[in-house]
Write a structure and sequence with these properties.
about 150 residues, alpha+beta, Aminopeptidase, 5-stranded mixed beta sheet, 5 strands, globular
């Protein structure tokens, strides 16, 4: 059985492991040099000033959603919740826990006064693997990001 809960410092090693897995999976991951120390530092910052939710199965974190609150550049009083990293270990994908993770994030965003809740969807080999799910949850595409490595 899984539960969704806010991450604690005790989850640090498992979150860093999932962050590394996310980076290896993401198409842009190979363009960005990083160290485990940098990831650990960033996760600590999220625990202090953002939010990380975990899917907990028998005391093990098997999925995460990290988010932060910002504002719209042309409307500083308008709060926007931004999902920064969403990862669910392969063996736990396609379960209701993934949806509950998003719902926990949405509840947090609303409690923080967000007017907009943003989710990202990786494009893998030209496909958007979770776009349909996000659409069913009421999300609509707003903007796309195109990337290329700099020389």
């Amino acid at each position: 059985m899984s539960i969704i809960r806010q991450a604690t410092i005790d989850d640090l090693d498992q979150i860093v492991d999932m962050a590394n897995r996310f980076i290896a999976f993401a198409p842009h991951g190979s363009l960005i040099k990083h160290t485990t120390d940098e990831i650990t530092h960033t996760v600590r910052l999220f625990l202090e000033s953002g939010i990380i939710f975990v899917i907990d199965v028998d005391g093990n974190a098997v999925g995460i959603l990290a988010a932060m609150m910002t504002s719209v550049w042309y409307s500083p009083s308008t709060k926007v919740a931004h999902e920064m990293m969403w990862w669910v270990n392969e063996e736990h994908r396609g379960t209701i826990a993934s949806i509950k993770l998003i719902k926990a994030y949405e509840n947090w965003a609303q409690d923080q006064g967000a007017k907009i809740i943003a989710m990202c969807d990786l494009v893998i080999a030209g496909h958007e693997p979770v776009g349909t799910t996000l659409n069913r949850l009421g999300y609509e595409m707003s903007e796309r990001t195109y990337i290329k490595g700099a020389k």
